[in-house]
Specification:
Blueprint (H helix, E strand, L loop, with lengths): L8 H7 L16 H14 L13 H13 L2 H21 L4
Helix pairs in contact: 2-3
Organism: Waterburya agarophytonicola KI4
Pfam families: DUF4096
Protein name: Transposase
Length: 98
C-alpha cells in the first residue's frame, strides 16, 4: 500500500542512479526503493523508527541504510539533485513571463 511519502515511478527513475552499488553476497530481501520509502515515511511523519508500518522493511534495516547513506553523502546528493530539478522546472514555468 503506497503512502503519500512513497516514491512515484518518475521519482524513482531520478533517485535510483544516485544510490550506491554494493557487492552482493546474497539476494537482498528488500529493494532499495522499499528502503527509501521507509526512510521517507519516517522523515515525513516524524515517527519513531520502530513505529514504521509493518508493510515497510523492518525499522532496523531502514535505519541502518539511512545512517549509511547519510554518512556517505547519498542523502545530500539526492536532496541536491531533486532541488536542482525543481529549480529547473521553476525556470521553465517563469521563462515566458516578462
Amino acid at each position: 500500500m503506497p503512502y503519500s511519502s512513497s516514491l512515484t515511478d518518475r521519482e524513482w527513475e531520478i533517485i535510483e542512479p544516485l544510490l550506491p552499488n554494493k557487492k552482493k553476497t546474497k539476494p537482498p530481501r528488500w529493494t532499495k526503493r522499499q528502503i527509501l520509502d521507509g526512510i521517507f515515511y519516517q522523515l515525513k511523519n516524524g515517527c519513531n523508527w520502530c513505529d514504521l508500518p509493518k508493510d515497510l522493511p523492518p525499522y532496523s534495516t531502514v535505519f541502518w541504510h539511512y545512517k549509511q547513506w547519510r554518512g556517505e553523502g547519498v542523502m545530500d546528493k539526492i536532496m541536491d539533485t531533486l532541488h536542482q530539478q525543481v529549480r529547473e522546472q521553476m525556470k521553465k514555468k517563469h521563462s515566458g513571463q516578462p
